[in-house]
Specification:
Layout (H helix, E strand, L loop, with lengths): L1 E6 L12 H12 L3 E6 L7 H11 L3 E5 L5 H14 L4 E5 L1 H4 L2 H7 L5 E3 L4 H12 L10 E5 L2 E4 L22 H7 L3 E3 L2 E2 L10 H5 L4 E2 L2 H13 L4 E4 L8 H14 L4 E6 L6 H9 L2 E9 L3 H6 L6 H14 L2 E8 L6 H13 L3 E6 L7 H4 L7 E2 L14 E2 L5 H28 L4 H21 L2 H5 L1 E2 L7 H13 L3 H13 L3 E6 L2 E6 L10
Parallel strand pairs: 1-2, 1-3, 3-4, 4-5, 8-11, 11-12, 12-13, 13-14, 14-15
Antiparallel strand pairs: 5-6, 6-7, 9-10, 16-17, 18-20, 19-20
Helix pairs in contact: 1-6, 2-3, 9-10, 10-11, 11-13, 16-17, 17-20, 19-20
């Protein structure tokens, strides 16, 4: 059986890692004995023509996709297009959004045949066996599907108790050179589950309140595997990496025992760190920890069931500074009962920590307490346009604050950063920056160029080089991309030459001409 798994478009500005959920799903399909291809539209442009070409090559029996709320609309649209292109294929969607909005998804999107609810690895194996044997879908736990005009939700599937029996994510199926060109960390998990009950989060609902840990030795095996791919920075994407200090110590000591050298970051809570734990993390290569503090108002922290205090936040930040780990704080605005006063308290508290911090807007995702029990809160949800659920603008209001007022608060704090960036760019081109400022500015400008190159398929579009240009093929490619994008020629050239030096793109022969291509592709003509 052939299976196509679609990684739907996701804003590159949101710093996506190579998609972890997609690769766990792909690994599950592989373990079920299927031939799997990941069609990645995160780091390449989506067009219906490209999708048609991929599906014609594979003739898949199953076409799957995953999504979060913000990219659900495009994911659903692509899956419905796949159904039109391959009517005999069974279209399947999973992920946190559809797990908690399965009925509406099936009612509104007739091109989607099946929803996988919650953790999908075991469900996928049963789905494959059932389809291969032409058995009844009703026998598969943890799915939703149509039966005529009726929506059927089968018996829920229990969570996977032993995570160590899962195969490693099938990252070999991803266009890894594109992700490496993007330059963001690659993610892993050391556990699943979240013991906390924050009203805005899906963690507890999606992966359970009991934290299930992977064997530290297997975690470090995976880290070594990632380093062999050429990645040098890793993000531990657990909901709460420091939930169990013994696990943290064991992972860190195993990294040290093997002599692995890399940098990494993790998500934590301010009430779960201490000096010893942070020192072990630092010595194992951790250089940054992100804390979700959410509010500077004590009553708000209780209202959202955060389970922390401001003193704990101050202490955690102080400990990070003491041991030399960068602390980052995340705050949420537009929470239930938000007022001008609570927002100002949050802003003042964020500044008082003297660390990097950022604001995110509350997005009441399907499945969250705040959405399902909205009548219990001083909050009004203003839209169900799912692509607006990106936490980058207000989509709620309270009795005291409009969405515009919430937006204005964040804009005030972001204004200084935007002005500083504009000054830095001006200084870069005027030659008035310090060398350090120039290095930082050039890095960000080149990242913007990489976004354009990936999202517009510019290596593919501009990569054909005539025989007369072959001696200066890199310059020819750079010139074409600069002309297409309007970006600075020197910066485009530096970016392209960096791709070449790192082996991310190469040139080969195609139809009598030189052609640049991404090295993850085994055959140049895949990009023709």
């Amino acid at each position: 059986m052939n299976v196509a798994i679609i990684a739907p478009p996701y804003p590159l500005e949101e710093a996506p890692s190579p998609p972890l959920g997609v690769t766990y799903v792909a690994a599950a399909f592989e373990s079920a004995g299927t031939k799997v291809r990941i069609i990645d539209y995160i780091v390449s442009r989506y067009t219906e023509e490209k999708l048609k070409h991929e599906l014609e090559q594979l003739s898949p029996r199953i076409v799957g996709a995953t999504s979060v709320t913000m990219n659900f609309p495009i994911a659903a649209s692509i899956l419905e297009t796949a159904k039109k292109l391959e009517p005999s294929a069974i279209t399947v969607m999973g992920g946190p959004h559809v797990s908690f909005d399965a009925v509406n998804t099936l009612k509104r999107h007739p091109g989607i045949d099946m929803i996988v609810i919650g953790e999908g690895e075991d469900t996928i194996i049963d789905v494959v066996r059932t389809i291969e044997s032409d058995g009844p879908w009703s026998s598969v736990r943890g799915i939703a599907y149509r039966d005529g005009d009726r929506i059927v939700m089968t018996e829920p599937r229990e969570l996977i108790e032993n995570l160590d029996r899962l195969p490693l994510p099938a990252r070999h199926l991803l266009p890894l050179s594109r992700y490496q060109a993007l330059g963001f960390p690659v993610s892993i998990i050391t556990s699943r589950g979240c013991p906390n009950a924050c009203i805005f989060c899906l963690g507890r609902r999606m992966v359970g309140k009991k934290v299930r840990h992977r064997d530290p030795s297997l975690v470090v095996d995976e880290i070594a595997h990632l380093l062999s791919f050429g990645f040098s920075r890793i993000n531990i994407a657990d909901d709460l990496f420091t939930a169990n200090k013994k696990k943290v110590r064991d992972v860190c000591r195993e990294i040290g025992r093997r002599g692995l050298t890399f940098s990494w970051s993790a998500f934590s809570r301010v009430n779960t760190v201490d000096v010893e734990t942070l020192e072990l993390m630092r010595d194992a290569g951790c250089d940054a920890v992100s804390f979700g503090i959410e509010s500077g108002n004590p009553d708000m922290l209780k209202r959202i069931r955060k389970g922390i205090t401001l003193d704990q936040a101050r202490n955690a930040v102080a400990l990070c500074k003491k041991v030399g780990i960068l602390a980052h704080a995340s705050f949420m605005v537009g929470l239930p009962g938000e007022t001008t006063h609570t927002l100002q308290e949050t802003g003042d508290f964020a500044e008082s920590l003297d660390i990097e911090y950022g604001f995110h807007f509350l997005a009441p995702f399907p499945g969250t307490t705040v959405r399902e029990k909205i009548d219990a809160f001083d909050l009004e949800i203003l839209t169900d346009e799912w692509d607006r659920y990106d936490a980058n603008s207000a989509i709620v209001r309270t009795s005291a604050l409009s969405a515009d007022e919430i937006n204005e608060f964040v804009a005030f704090y972001e204004k200084a950063g935007k002005e500083a960036w504009e000054r830095s760019v001006q200084g870069y081109y005027a030659g008035t920056n310090t060398p350090l400022e120039n290095m930082s500015t050039e890095g960000q400008l080149r990242t913007q160029i990489v976004f354009r190159i990936l999202s517009e398929d510019l290596v593919e579009e501009c990569g054909r080089i005539s025989p007369s240009e072959e001696m200066k093929a890199a310059d020819a490619l750079s010139l074409k991309i600069a002309g297409r994008t309007g970006c600075d020629q020197d910066l485009v050239t530096k970016t392209i030459k960096s791709f070449i030096e790192k082996g991310q793109i190469k040139k080969g022969s195609l139809e009598g001409s030189c052609r640049w291509y991404w090295t993850h592709n085994k055959r140049v003509d895949r990009l023709a």
